[in-house]
Structure prediction request, 1623 residues.
Amino acid sequence: MESKTDSETKNQRHSIFSKHEISMLGIRSNLVQSSFSYERMHAPGFTWAQLPYWEKIYRDDPKGLSRVMTDNMEFINSSPPLYPILMGLLLSMEEDHVDSQTIKGLKNALFGPMAGIGDAIFWFTIMPIVGGISASIAKSGNVLGPILFFLVYLFLFWTRIPLAHLGYNLGAKAIDIIEDNSKIISHVASILGLTVIGALIASYVKMKLTIKVGAGGAVIDLQRQLLDKIFPNLLPFAFVFLLYWLLKKNINPIWLIIVTFALAIVMSLLGWM
Amino acid sequence: MESKTDSETKNQRHSIFSKHEISMLGIRSNLVQSSFSYERMHAPGFTWAQLPYWEKIYRDDPKGLSRVMTDNMEFINSSPPLYPILMGLLLSMEEDHVDSQTIKGLKNALFGPMAGIGDAIFWFTIMPIVGGISASIAKSGNVLGPILFFLVYLFLFWTRIPLAHLGYNLGAKAIDIIEDNSKIISHVASILGLTVIGALIASYVKMKLTIKVGAGGAVIDLQRQLLDKIFPNLLPFAFVFLLYWLLKKNINPIWLIIVTFALAIVMSLLGWM
Amino acid sequence: MESKTDSETKNQRHSIFSKHEISMLGIRSNLVQSSFSYERMHAPGFTWAQLPYWEKIYRDDPKGLSRVMTDNMEFINSSPPLYPILMGLLLSMEEDHVDSQTIKGLKNALFGPMAGIGDAIFWFTIMPIVGGISASIAKSGNVLGPILFFLVYLFLFWTRIPLAHLGYNLGAKAIDIIEDNSKIISHVASILGLTVIGALIASYVKMKLTIKVGAGGAVIDLQRQLLDKIFPNLLPFAFVFLLYWLLKKNINPIWLIIVTFALAIVMSLLGWM
Amino acid sequence: MEITFIQGLLIAIWAMIAGLDCWLQAFFIFRPIIVCTITGLILGDLKMGVIAGGLTELAFAGLTPAGGTQPPNTVLCGIMTVVVAYTNNIAPQTAIGLSLPFAMLMQYILLIYYSSFSLFLPTFDRYAEDGNAKAFKRLNLVPMAIVTLSFGIVAFLSAYAAQGPMRTLVNSMPHWLTHGFELAGGILPAVGFAMLLKVMLKARYLPYLLLGFVVASMIPFSNVLPVALVGAVFAMIEFYHSKDEEKTRAKIKELEANNQGGGMNDGI
Amino acid sequence: MEITFIQGLLIAIWAMIAGLDCWLQAFFIFRPIIVCTITGLILGDLKMGVIAGGLTELAFAGLTPAGGTQPPNTVLCGIMTVVVAYTNNIAPQTAIGLSLPFAMLMQYILLIYYSSFSLFLPTFDRYAEDGNAKAFKRLNLVPMAIVTLSFGIVAFLSAYAAQGPMRTLVNSMPHWLTHGFELAGGILPAVGFAMLLKVMLKARYLPYLLLGFVVASMIPFSNVLPVALVGAVFAMIEFYHSKDEEKTRAKIKELEANNQGGGMNDGI
Amino acid sequence: MEITFIQGLLIAIWAMIAGLDCWLQAFFIFRPIIVCTITGLILGDLKMGVIAGGLTELAFAGLTPAGGTQPPNTVLCGIMTVVVAYTNNIAPQTAIGLSLPFAMLMQYILLIYYSSFSLFLPTFDRYAEDGNAKAFKRLNLVPMAIVTLSFGIVAFLSAYAAQGPMRTLVNSMPHWLTHGFELAGGILPAVGFAMLLKVMLKARYLPYLLLGFVVASMIPFSNVLPVALVGAVFAMIEFYHSKDEEKTRAKIKELEANNQGGGMNDGI
Ligand SMILES: OC[C@H]1O[C@H](O)[C@@H](O)[C@@H](O)[C@@H]1O
Ligand SMILES: OC[C@H]1O[C@H](O)[C@@H](O)[C@@H](O)[C@@H]1O
Ligand SMILES: OC[C@H]1O[C@H](O)[C@@H](O)[C@@H](O)[C@@H]1O
Prediction:
């Protein structure tokens, strides 16, 4: 009974942080990529965002502050819009002086799956949908297209605030739930993500042949009479897999772009596309 | 060997009921809802339908008759068109003087799943399909629409007779099969039912905005240029979930109808729909 | 370490067969059906195809040759285009003088699942797709239709050669993989096969009523206003299941063809189709 | 046009027949497509009845009584759609909206019966205990008689007696209001679906709801049979999966039992 | 137009080549699309041959010999469709129906061979036991020779010798009969599918059959590749599920074995 | 038309704002649809900016930086598409292709930063060890400043300083080359998807990729939401399956543990 009200009113009773401060944590999470490097990715920005809170918690404990800063400088890479949850969670634990090893373990258990989920949702689902709809409005010169896009992302920006509160309020209670499910969730996010990528390949890669082969009465339009009859978007799919195969052979991505350009220009020159 | 011929020829050899009487059980099952009340739902009609048969079984045993009547007055609610099977089954057990506790248990184990399956099949699949097809014929004033509808339901009415025979002939043999599968079957019926409800929402709830927003060159038709580009039937789906959420908050269904009317009239007044 | 290079360079080091000979095994596999009979199906052709290799292996061992020939004369029926893999595999084992009982067991474990997979892929997927596309080109009199068809099957013919090498090179190593998976694979092939058959029924069986029923203002076009509104291709599906049911009743397939003809002619006579 | 007394009476009789069927759910002649047709026949305009039947049937598709709920009553709605269209000479489409209040009136009468008929239960119970079959059978007729009569009275009053005020009302209604009623008719099925969802929706079935919605929105087909078949496909696949899992679970239980058995043996 | 003796001979030779391929299923030149084209070439009307090939290929799509069954023979059907269309100057579409009896004749000849060729088996067995490779190889040529010859003879008789009576027959056929044959050509694949289903359909695969049917009926696409891909999707998903389950089952078996092992140890 | 110095400056400032947002991924004003619009506004041709924004947004849909990769830069691409179209008076569609080299230039600059900014890490680490929050916060501004400045400089040079040579180049380009650039713009998303697949594709997810591809190819709908919903349906179904399996697996583990425990006990 006690523990229930306990967590419900945490913000009011125990917390040393005001509601406003937690909101600010959400805002500060926007800087996780500030000092991005491949070596440790979000580590410095991640540390920076939480720093003022640790300063408050470890006001009289410089050792503690040093420890927590060092701990958080380890490699971390997750989905930016989901950091507020993670940070809120970690902050509530830090505040309760949970053992630092536990916190580290939790952080490491969570950021990976969260990256997968976040990417599936934000990069592969929301962005192409909102982008696609806005673009189709904008293509006719209607300024409501970009405005719509902006408003949606302003809303997503704002969600960082409630997400920070969510993470902070759930606190340790949330951990078991998330940890138990993290493997399944990243599995499930992959399913969603790859389905959408399949759809994106069909929707956004544009390759159509314009040549006809044969002679005399036996002429066929390669694209419309052969390829499109086999399967629409066959070329885009095949080309993506060609590039995929090249990447698997450790070809540098820069080459893929060059190959793409070369192909397009050659095709244009030959009049095949 | 014996037991096989036994059950196959039950109707002929052991049964104290004629084929005609079993057919009549199917017909009588039509009155399960005769004295419907929320307290016990089908109980009185269910008892009534089986009463003549118990009178025959317990001709010389008033205690038995009283017991079986009392037993069957307990709450029961299942899918009306499937009662013939259930009643046939119970009758064959009653006739074999199976222990009354067993019969009760069986009845309770079966009526729930049968309600789920029956509703999924009869209310959510057959009715909208037959109704939809007949209606589309009728809409042009063609009387074959209602005739088709009537014939299909006449046929379904008739099926109660073979279903009663089925239940009665299978008898106790059927029980294990049904009981073993009842959990899975109701799971599976939910899958079917909810898929169809999803389709019904898309097909039967009609909400389309007629307003345009923006000014000057930047005008868009909200329905066709925004909502329909996001997803067709977005409004119906959202509105159903709004009502669902209200119901979850224990709002009385009457309010939902009032809200719907109010919304429609306001939308009409504003010229938004 | 040793065993790895071992198998990789098998062809070069251990094998008593040249690359050309293994290629020829692929070619010879085309004759598996040469002496087809219901009693043992591919057995004689299967034996014939491998015979020259056994002659080489058992050059100085007439008993061995006799044994292996007799062993292979047992019933076997699999998918012709997949025999090269099977034969390559068995040959590599025969060459390594693996115990004859093991070889037999393996053969029996594999040919069934391979038949299922092969039929699903070659008969039910590749043929209708390639046939359908070529036919749609040919229907307008374009000779590229048959040419396309021929080229695809020439390619499939050619694949027998690499498949023979594959089977031979993998050798015993492949067995565990295939055996472990054979049950799952035939399960999975059935899923693919039946999905495609469902599609083929919808695409290739053509039955459309031309009658109208009713009188006066209440006339409906049975096909377009009733059947097509219930579900497209309803008649073909129903008819296939009628035939299926007849077959289950052990009606001779010849009767099905006669029934089909009779039905078509009667329908034509009545003007119903 | 006006409804004559004889027509009013015939409508009342028809309401009693269809109403009883609605109570029992036997022949399904209580569905709008039948109710409207017969009402049209009574009023001498079969064709309009049939058309109204088609339109009303679609509007009421989602409003099923599954699970013992009560939707707006199809018998009254069917009758009054045709009556309103006939007496006011308006399109059936608009009349649907105007018939809804009558349908809701009947809905509430039936809801009251659903609650108050529990008053009969003690008597039923007594007859059961006494093994008094005859009295039991007789008593079972009473609720049906009450329901049947109610349908007749409500229909007569609505269709015949109220036609004057009804006409005045309709004539004085501005366009936005009648259009609003039309819209309401199109949105109304949402209520039925929401009620169904409250009964049936669990998190684990959400994907199937979504599936049905997406497929129906994407394929341009006139009925839900294709989607129902897709639902059946997923249901059947799940059926066999569940079967397999059940077997596995049964085996595990067996093992657990053995284990404990083994443990006990150890203890001896 | 009439078929000359030389053309008849060329057709017979072509029938032998395509017929042997049909028996062996090697190059797939026995499919109507190829058979008709070459026959058209022989008769000097390539274009008609190609068109007939397209139409006949579609009509025979379902009639596969999978599982050792014998459908109406595609070689005879292909040849005779072109021949009948050519000699009677009718549309290939109608000719398909008229060529079916010939296709069925050949089907039955092959069925007889499928049964009677078991007579060669004892001799094969003897050579195998004796390790007599040479004789074995020689004997294997005999059935092929029989089949090849049969194709040549049947095709020659059907195409060349029977053209007179054929023409009389076709001319005397009323429209409803030729139309009936056309219809039969369209329905015929049903037989093939029913036979397939008898071999392959188990209750647990019914959902997939339905899935393929529904998807193909709903998407307006000209070949079955999209549906085959959907089938492949479900097959692959199931593959990984089955893998997981297998692991679980293997673990349970291990546990059972341990348990029994443990039990035995206890006994010691 | 020419770009004035003021306009060049404004573009540079806008590039700095959008560029910083691109680095941080905060407001998503770095997406082409916004970048082009604002650039159009600066150049006094809002409408063209909006149109270019729509086109470029679609071309860049697949090129996400998910997983820390760097696609061609959307800020430079957006700015230069509008600039090239404006200064050379050509269609935005063609301008996309011509802006790509600039986008790739910026991509490489950022890639160099992604690698070289690890040089700051030792200093960060030192401040962390010292618990020197103030210095840490200050240092964190440096990389952002570098990135922001770079965007400004590159954009200014590309848009203002390079316009002369740019125009010469464009004018001298043959049709096949500009058409080639257009084509490249349409194919480019393939690169992004291939990179995604390298990160995400495992054999067990192949069916879902295929599913998305097939469904999107078959339904004529303008965005991927329906397919995303289908993906969500399969994901949710799988979620509940995995949950069930997990339970089973947990039980089996328990049994295994008990078994071993039992074994040990026996040993005592
Ligand atoms: O839900 C089961 C069942 O409940 C009530 O009895 C009625 O609404 C029936 O129509 C329904 O089938
Ligand atoms: O079913 C396996 C196999 O059976 C027979 O051998 C033939 O019909 C083949 O075409 C088929 O592939
Ligand atoms: O993949 C997770 C994550 O990786 C990097 O940090 C960035 O590319 C983010 O945009 C992405 O979300």
Remarks:
- The CA atoms of residues 216 and 226 of chain D lie 8 Å apart.
- The two ends of chain D are 94 Å apart (CA to CA).
- Chain D has two domains: 5-200, 202-268.
- Residues 263-268 of chain D have pLDDT under 50 and may be disordered.
